Amino acid sequence: MAEAGYYRFPSIHGEDVVFVSEDDLWHVPADGGVARRLTGGIAAVTHPAISPDGKHVAFSGKLEGPAEVYLMPLSGGEPKRITFTGHGTNVVGWDRQGRILFISSWRQPFPSLTEIYAIPPDGGMPEKLPYGWAKSISLHPGGGIVIGRNAADPAIWKRYRGGTEGEIWIDPEGKGAFRKLLTLAGNVSRPMWIGERIFFLSDHEGVGNLYSCRVSGEDLRRHTHHETFYVRNPSTDGRRIVYHAGGDLYLYDPSANETSRIEIVYPSPRPQRRRRFVRGADYLDDFRLDPSGKSLALIARGRAFTVGIREKAFFQHGLRDGVRYRLPTWLSEGKRLLLVSDECGEETLELHHVDPFLPPRRLDVGDIGSPLVIEAAPRGDLVALGNHRCELFLLDLAQERATRIDRSPHGMIRHFDWSPDGRYLAYSVAVNRRRTAIRIYDTQEECVHPVTEPILSDTCPVFDPEGKYLYFLSYREFDPVQDDVHFDLGFPRGARPYLATLRKETPDPLLPREEEETSRQGKGEPGDGDAPESLGNDREDAAGVHASSSPAVEIDFEGISERIVPLPVPLGRYWALAALPKRLLFLEAPIKGMLGRGERPDQCLEASLTLKIFDLTKQRTQTLITGISAFHLAANRKKLCYRKENRLRVVPAGEPIEKKGSAPGGEEGWIALEQLSVGVEPALEWRQLYREAWRLQRDYFWNEEMSAVDWEAVYERYLPLLDRISTRSECSDLLWEMQGE
Fold first, then answer.
1. Residue 113, pLDDT above cutoff 80
2. Is 712 helix (H, G, I), strand (E, B) or coil?
3. DSSP secondary structure letters along 75-87
4. 8 A C-beta contact, residue 94 and residue 52
């Protein structure tokens, strides 16, 4: 027997029903039977609407880019593109003149504010109808009009009662005199005018069901009684209503006041559930150099890999499918890799070995929440971890013990760094809603010491590898910039790197000293002149580097806040500090306008950062690399890896990058990501996505009681539908409805 699919967006005309499954259009008789595929394109289609004569079906499709209106025969055939808005459309029906009706935010800047347009089946210029903002429309043969505003699908935000909840407006005679149909304590949408009643979707009694009232707004009646899943996307041919709920199609007959499920035989091979392979570079997430700078760990599409920087063979760690790995962190000796894994459904820590013959080990360190940042100590098995609960933990991996160091009720702890000897941990913590301070935890004394008294924000602390200074970014200087358009002042540049001397007797490195000038002229010293300081022998192993060159760090905490000096670097937009001997690396972000940002706020910063270095000896700043998005410095401070779009490159730390070529591997240092192919088992990946989305909502929801929603029951309610989905968009739809609870 054929397996059931995941059915959405039905449309009905007489005995014909068209619906969407696997991102294609299908046809099935209204009384059930074998479904027949109408489209087989490579892009998603949605929102079909059968024409009044039953011969054609209009739909929204992304066949050539943004969703546009297409038309095809109901019997099958080649779709014809009707609109060319370039802005996204959703078909909502047909008008009395036989024109296709669609909603779009065309010609205005706000995607959520849509208006109704009409266009002939032969194409042409769409006509905007004078109904204002709307999500759906239904027309009475006598001329009346009813529209739904604000809400399109209440299932994705169940029981919403905010200012943009759905409303239904009616013009009984079609003369432009609209009034609000009725007011309910719920989200109403999708009005459908059948006979003398207005049918619509509402969740004012807890679950979205079909209701109706008279044209006057009186005589409210309930017609369906779903208690588990919302009624979604109902549509009508003026006689009966078809809708979907829980992946199934239902038919409601107002004349008999009866609802029946449409039994569908679904003969699909479900090709999009088959295993496939994708380019790892297109899904690059995180990367970390090992302590020696000779190997790289990276995450691509949730899989963990390691590769030698001069090799092309990638080794995958952990399970092949169905698990997401995060935050790869090398331990100090460079032979073990710590990963966050959700193999068991909850996030745990796993130790993986470079040696493929040694099995991984899951660590039982107790409840550490959802990790955000992990940093391993330069010696031993200590690890610092910041989580979503604004906590900072010290983990002893050997003893499998977790100790909470600090917690802020005002913000997450994301920036911390170990001293070269592994004794101290510097971190930034929000002390109130506006101010962030630097603190240091002493692992020997097991106590926290305050370091800065911020004016606004002190963040991103990093230790000098020689153990003399603590660098950090501070927002404590205010140099307003005059606006060219408005009579106003702003602060587009607010950060500057600072340093604190750790010992009282350590002199301010920025003050000139006569004896150093004489010594420098006579002997020279590392970092002087145009050549970068020696980076040592790349063959030296990581353990040897730490054992021989990491100094024992001593800190005089008394008066440390008074030993803070700014670096002679202009105010700017900086972050991601990393320290070399007598030099400081940092990223600078450009100041960009809002136009062209894209839908995600971070899109304007992708591949637009500049890596710079400040030399304490020369007291000058130099540009190293431009057009990057991130970098990571190896623990031995000899190599760094940077990301430029979807490529990774390992180069000597602290040296300007010459553009000698872009060939992967070899002397240029490009990692051979074109060799990385990641296998994808869609069904297992969607199951992992479902669990992670459910877990994230639980962990980050503003209320620990989940607003009295039984979140475990929600998980179990939607879980069986995973076996019915066949495409990524269906997975997203399921996630939306689950999180809408």
1. yes
2. helix
3. T----EE----SS
4. yes
- Give helix then strand counts, H and E, for the chain: 5, 57
At residue 422, the pLDDT reads 95
**Is the Cβ–Cβ distance between 671 and 648 less than 8 Å?**
yes
The set of residues, in sequence order, having a beta carbon less than 8 Å from that of 64 and lying 6+ positions away, is 43, 81
Nearest to 559 by CA among 507, 508, 504: 504
How far apart CA 430 and CA 415 sit, in angstroms, is 11
H-helix or E-strand containing 688?
helix 682-700
Closest C-alpha among 84, 94, 144, 140 to residue 116: 94
For the cut 70, the answer to whether the pLDDT of residue 158 exceeds it is: yes
Contact present, 458 and 562 (Cβ < 8 Å): no
Question: Which residue, 118, 148, 114, 117, is CA-closest to 133?
Answer: 114
Reported pTM: 0.90
User: Residue 73 in contact with residue 87, Cβ under 8 Å?
Assistant: no
Domains of the chain are 138-224 (no CATH), 389-513+539-572 (2.130.10.10), 693-739 (no CATH)
What Rg, from alpha-carbon coordinates, does the chain have?
31
pLDDT at residue 328 tops 50: yes
pLDDT digits (tens, 9 = 90+) for 221-239: 999 999 999 999 999 999 9
pLDDT of residue 532: 44
Q: What number of CA atoms fall less than 13 Å from residue 18's CA on the CB side?
A: 27
Beta bridge mates, 138? 146
Distance (Å, whole) CA 294 – CA 543: 13
Q: Are strands 469-475 and 36-37 parallel, antiparallel or unpaired?
A: unpaired
Q: Are strands 221-222 and 232-236 parallel, antiparallel or unpaired?
A: unpaired
Residue 549 binned pLDDT confidence (cut-offs 50, 70, 90): low
Quote the strand ranges of 314-466, DSSP E: 315-317, 325-330, 336-341, 348-353, 361-363, 371-376, 382-387, 391-396, 401-407, 416-418, 424-430, 436-442, 447-450, 457-463
What average pLDDT score do residues 325-336 get? 96
* Residue 202 pLDDT exceeds 80: yes
- Contact 696/739 with Cβ under 8 angstroms? no
Q: Residue 7 — left, alpha, or beta (φ > 0 → left; ψ -120 to 50 → alpha)?
A: beta
Q: What angle do CA 726, 728, 729 make, to 5 degrees?
A: 100
Q: SS3 breakdown of the chain: % helix, strand, coil, rounded to 5?
A: 10, 40, 50
Q: What is the rounded CA–CA span in Å between residue 418 and residue 376?
A: 8
pLDDT bracket for residue 112 (50, 70, 90): confident
Mean pLDDT, the chain, integer = 91
For residue 469, report the phi and psi dihedrals to the nearest 5 degrees. -130, 160
Q: How confident is the model at residue 117 (pLDDT cuts 50, 70, 90)?
A: very high
- The larger pLDDT score, comparing residue 513 to residue 49, is at 49
Greater model confidence, 704 or 263: 263
Sequence letter at residue 384: A
pLDDT of residue 525: 39
Tell me the backbone φ, ψ of residue 579, rounded to 5 degrees: -110, 135
Largest CA distance in the chain: 103
Q: In what order do the strands lie in the sheet with 80-81?
A: 45-50, 56-61, 68-73, 80-81
In the chain, % of residues over pLDDT 90: 84
- Structure token digits, residue 429: 């913590």
Query: Is 158:230 a contact under the CB 8 Å cutoff?
Result: yes
| 740-to-705, 722, 732 alpha-carbon distances in Å | 16, 17, 12
Give the per-residue pLDDT at 597. Answer: 59
Neighbouring residues of 705: CB distance < 8 A, sequence distance ≥ 6: none
Quickly list DSSP for 115-126: EEEEE-TT----
| Predicted local distance difference test score (pLDDT) of residue 593 | 80
Helix 711-718, helix 682-700: angle, nearest 10: 160
Residue 551: the pLDDT is 80
Tokens 């079906």 belong to: 57
How far is the C-alpha of 606 from the C-alpha of 687, rounded, in Å? 30
Instruction: Give SS3 for 258.
Output: strand
pLDDT at residue 657 in the model:
81
